[in-house]
Amino acid sequence: MSALFPFHGGLKTVRHKTESNQTPIQAGILPPRLTVPLRQHIGAIAKPLVQPGDRVLKGQMIGQPDGYISAAIHAPTSGVVSAVDQQPVPHPSGLSDLCVTIESDGEDRWIDREPVDYHRLHPSELRQTIRNAGVVGLGGAGFPSAVKLNLAGRSEPLATLMLNGAECEPWITCDDRLMRERAAEIVAGLQIMAHLLGPAEVLIGIEDDKPEAIAAMTAACAGTSYEVRPVPTRYPSGSVKQLVKLLTGRETPVDGLPVDVGVQCFNVATAYTVYRAIHCGEPVISRVVTVTGQVHRPGNLEVLIGTPFAELIKQCGGYRDGVERLIMGGPMMGFALHSDEAPVTKAANCLLAAGPAELAAELPVLPCIRCGACMDVCPANLLPQQLYWHARAKEFDQARDCHLFSCIECGCCSHVCPSHIPLVQYYRYAKNEIWAQEKEKQRAEQARQRHQARMERLEREKQEREAKLRQKAPVRTEVVPHLDPLISVPSPTKGEGSGQVG
Amino acid sequence: MRFKTVTSPHILQQNSVGQVMRRVLYAMVPGIAALVWFFGWGVLINLALATVVALGAEAVMLSIRGKPLALHLGDYSAVVTAWLLAVALPPLAPWWLTMIGVLAAIVVAKHLYGGLGYNPFNPAMIGYVVLLISFPREMSAWLIPHGIGQPHALSLLDSLQIIFGGAGSLPVDALTGATPLDVLRTRLGLGQTVTDIRNSPVFGVVAGQGWEWATAGFLAGGLWLVYTRTAAWQIPAGLLGGLVVMSTTFYLIDPQHYAPPWFHIWSGAVIFGAFFIATDPVTASTTPRGRLIYGAGIGILIYIIRGFGGYPDGVAFSVLLMNIAAPTLDLYTRPRVFGEKQL
Amino acid sequence: MIVAVIALGLLAGASGLLLGFAAIRFKVEGDPMVEQIDAVLPQTQCGQCGYAGCRPYAEAIAAGEADINRCPPGGQNGIAALAELLGRDPKPLDPESGIEKPKMAAVIDEQSCIGCTLCIQACPVDAIVGAAKHMHTVIARECTGCELCLAPCPVDCIHMIPFAPSITTWKWTYPAVEVKAAA
Fold first, then answer.
1. Given 3.40.30.10, 3.40.50.620, 3.30.70.20, 3.30.390.10, which CATH number is that of C102-183?
2. According to DSSP H, which parts of B65-122 are helical?
3. What pTM was estimated for this model as a whole?
4. Per the CB < 8 Å rule, is A447 touching C177?
5. Cβ contact, residue pair A335, B5, below 8 Å
6. 3-state secondary structure A148-214
7. C-alpha span between B141 and B166 (Å, rounded)
8. Which residue, A49, A415, B103, C114, is most buried by CB atoms nearer than 10 A?
9. From the CA of B115, how many Å to the nearest CA of chain A?
């Protein structure tokens, strides 16, 4: 086995994987109504292509990517669009976003699916196919994969293509089950990615608490040069930058991406959807979701995007007593849902119904005693205590100087804090404030420029008018009528000016 | 169905400030046991008195500041301060001495600076220094340890009477004597050599009789603290390293006028200070390199104060001086962040 | 005595030369203070401060003619930023100039608009489009919320609408737990 390059910090957390990884992936039931958010990815929200009343087929594109960093959205089943409006989506705010609601007709009828031979396609056509299939990172971030599969503009060839099967968060087992059951398909998807990127090596990182998945993936990689690399079970080894360091020893620069050090990394489930898109002609309309915690029959379900979480819970036997929080994602980085009516999205890897047994008791917050326990576990090698002092005092400049934006919000620091300070929330707060301030600054700068342009235009108009008057009455220049540009009647030039602005 | 929403992470390790503080208390037990064996009941009476006064003062200050009592008394930080100070006091110190020290520590050094987590100076050491400067005579009246000359057999009652009622008819003066570091300092001043002085009965194998066993106890507890990661290893390592470098240098220059490094390490409050006092996280530097420098600074200052200053031991002053430097150390010893270019 | 006088004289001369050199070498062009103050102001150009826009107010502050607490859109944060920049103590907003309000954008009720163009002329950032006798509309993205278009409108068809919270503008809040524990 090749050498590993451990990252600083990290934690041994509780695992709780066996609750849900003992049974095969079950097909989800077809719900009567699906609510499909048009923003399930990083980047611009997709443009709706349908209107209420439209009939749609399963796999039909209902949202078009709007710009380069955006992703397509597809109808998960056949039926009638009943609404295109604001609906609650899974988000820490509990707010609504633009969604397409589809009443299922129960027939689940597909569009014409056209598998393609990717060897025959030009790389840009292949990327377009993947983009039109709505493939985004399924590890949780939801970054459009077609963008990451394009290396145009990079001078050096890619050194490493990496597949992330670490799944380091407790409770989540969807990638584990997918690797056990569909390793060949994942590797087939990986081949397509390798075809596009042309990497020198292909590595698959899997935490060593998943021996079955490691065995299945190793078997599927037989005959290829792809290498499965078990990594120690240490949270957060599944974080991209940490996994890249772990497997290649290369550290992604502070403000950079793994591709800056010659590595491109995808989630195993993403590779699986690439396979479906190319070999089956099926866009991303379903995903495997781990449903675990305080439910009667925990397990993994392959459900349609847009299925309400409540349906998943129902299929898993319903809640057991004492569910306090419903967490989307893992207990370390996931967020608590406001309601189980929100729909499954591409980023929803796990639904954890948490009761007192899963959660730590809410403990009183004490002052920071500067013990440095947070520093010892920080995988980004930050000084969380200093970040905390600055964020708490709202000293955002200093927080940024202390590399606030290197924080990956993994939650290790809050996890070990003896004073139970919600450190991660402080960092999120500070980051959000900095972003908002920056946006505000941009807006102000824009307003300043527009104001300046207006003043210049008014000045120009005034001079033009004076020149005209002088032409008309060249002798009597001393009685030029006073014209205040601010209350002047609209002139053709003015209309032009406004038109340019519009 | 609606749910509670709380920010991630949703699982927390079961630890607390109280647990950290209790570990410090447990780690002090072996050293305290040795002190009790060699110096009698007075040590325990001091501890009990300091604890009661500290908790009382803490409760009063908390209620004045409008903080929840149960929550903050349960963090054991006041008890730790009380014990650290009590261990540093002479075993038969009068009750008012202990009380003044504890009040200075809890009321002034801790709560007037903002309470737990906000105090820039180590409260126990502030208390100690206030006493050392204000009551030098009482602070130097250490008991002669059990086993030198006549074993003193002060009963619990006698001890209580001395502490709370003054010496009365008891021959206290006969029971107290200079500490080993005092002896070393005074006699060096008289022109004697280190070898001659070390032959005096107050010295044991390595350092002071009796004291050396208490030191061993504190070392054992301190190593356990480091092992459980309750205390940062860098601070004692830096402290002892700084002291060793200084004392070895001077010892090699002139062994007759400068005591050997092992004597310095094992004497006075060095081990206790390195593992229990300097490692107070609130007032120490918080970065790995900063802690090493912080520790080394204390070690060097201890040697300078012992060798060239006006006091026989300098742990308290050294710690307080380095407390001032801690924020600056934090600022300049930030570790390299993941992905940051090598500095 | 002589030596001391000469030494001091030389020292003074050397320092003088050094200062003179520094003054030339590190000369600052223009008046950066006005630029810096202007950069902190919110650029709504609303005139609530009593000046014709943000830049005139910045010039007035730099000249010492205006106080730093006269900008309601900047709010308490803006005053704090100005105080920090100018090395003064922050003070509460001057109620004479207005009160701090949540950010809003102007919206024209298109049914009632008569197309008089008065609001177009009032808008300091050209954020209203339209022509005479035609309906006008506000470019929401460019509106600074200065409210200068409200007064000129003869039919009162412009309203200020606060920004609705959305997923893209939602922010994590300052943790409240700490406040409770400290209380």
1. 3.30.70.20
2. 69-73, 77-88, 95-103
3. 0.86
4. no
5. yes
6. HCCCCCCCCCCCEEEEEECCCCCCCCHHHHHHHHCHHHHHHHHHHHHHHHCCCEEEEEEECCCHHHH
7. 13
8. A415
9. 9
C118, A486 Cβ separation under 8 angstroms: no
Terminal C-alpha separation, chain B: 53
Determine the distance in angstroms separating the CA of B76 from the nearest CA of chain A, rounded to an integer.
12
Q: Where are the domains of chain C?
A: 32-86, 102-183
Nearest chain B alpha carbon to A380: B338
Q: What are phi and psi of C171, to 5 degrees?
A: -130, 145
Of B320, B328, B316, nearest to B272 by C-alpha is B316
Q: pLDDT tens digits, residue range A333-354?
A: 999 999 999 999 999 999 999 9
Do B237 and B292 touch, CB atoms closer than 8 A?
Answer: yes
Two tokens, residue B226: 């480091």
- Which of A93, A369, A407 to mutate: most B Cβ within 10 Å? A369
Q: Which chain C residues touch B67 with a CB distance below 8 Å?
A: 182
In this predicted model, what pLDDT tens digit does every residue of B251-282 receive, in sequence order? 999 888 888 898 899 888 899 999 999 999 99
The residues on B that touch A, with CB distances below 8 Å, are 1-17, 19-20, 68, 71-72, 75, 77, 115-118, 229, 232, 281-282, 284, 286-288, 330, 334-341
Closest to B161 (Cα-Cα) out of B149, B175, B151: B175
Among all chains, which residue has been given the structure tokens 């991209």?
A: A240
Tokens of A105: 């007709």
User: Hey, how many other C-beta atoms are within 10 angstroms of the C-beta on A152?
Assistant: 7
Contact A95 C125 (CB under 8 A): no
